[in-house]
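A reminder from the course coordinator: this example appears on the midterm review sheet, so study it carefully.

Given structure:
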């Protein structure tokens, strides 16, 4: 059994469907949070979300990419703490990973 040919509009229909699904996912968080009272405990949990999301995203990459990525991440975080400049942290991280790779780490 073969799938029917969607014709010239198939890609547009897929893009529109993905856009609608993305919008519904994004707006559902706003709608659902309207029903949750913002107690101090909930506020602390929401304040901790950005850091936990970053760790959940970055740590598997560091695990997979090795010591050079870990050193670059540590250097970028240290740069960010000291100078508060995203661009500088990015450059420091890139320079660190380049140096670590050049040294064979």
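Designed residues:
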């Amino acid at each position: 059994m073969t799938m029917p040919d969607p014709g010239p509009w198939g890609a547009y229909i897929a893009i529109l469907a993905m856009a609608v699904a993305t919008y519904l996912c994004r707006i559902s968080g706003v709608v659902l949070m309207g029903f949750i009272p913002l107690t101090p405990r909930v506020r602390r949990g929401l304040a901790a979300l950005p850091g936990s999301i970053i760790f959940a995203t970055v740590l598997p990459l560091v695990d997979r990419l090795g010591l050079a990525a870990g050193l670059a991440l540590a250097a970028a975080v240290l740069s960010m703490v000291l100078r508060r400049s995203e661009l500088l942290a990015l450059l420091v991280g890139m320079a660190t990973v380049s140096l670590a790779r050049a040294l064979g780490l």
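Helices lie at 10-33, 40-65, 67-83, 86-102. Residues 7-102 form one domain.
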